[in-house]
TrEMBL record:
Protein name, entry field: Antibiotic biosynthesis monooxygenase family protein
Gene3D superfamilies: 3.30.70.100
UniProt GO MF annotations: monooxygenase activity
One of the Pfam families matching this protein, by short name: ABM
Highest taxon in the source lineage: Bacteria
Keywords: Monooxygenase, Oxidoreductase
């Protein structure tokens, strides 16, 4: 499970996917399979979480990596390039964006 904290020693990536309710479950299945079989086994992977909205038109993926280069290396592998082609066919668009955690708040 990702732990959100104000730290600068890891890379946070938030990826948003836009799809139709008809392809939502297929996309969730593809993402779960990618994490279980490949992404979670890549060097530098720390944790990830998948979130879907109630209309099943958007998925948000929060992942953490030891270094931004680890995430970039994973994306460049032939296996992930093939998986991304399949994922792309299931959604209107998706965009991974790297972020730094600036602050967190809890009660």
């Amino acid at each position: 499970m990702p732990a959100i904290a104000k730290r600068n020693d890891y890379q946070t990536v938030i990826t948003t996917f836009e799809m139709t309710p008809g392809t939502c479950q297929d996309l969730i299945d593809a993402l779960n399979e990618a994490y279980a079989d490949f992404i979670s086994k890549q060097p530098g992977f720390i944790a990830a979480g998948l979130h879907v909205n109630d209309a099943q038109t958007r998925i948000a993926n929060y992942s953490q990596w030891e270094k931004r280069e680890d995430f970039q290396a994973m994306l460049r592998t032939p296996e992930m390039r093939e998986r991304n082609r399949h994922i792309s066919a299931l959604c209107k668009n998706f965009e991974p964006v790297m972020y730094d955690v600036i602050d967190t708040y809890r009660t």
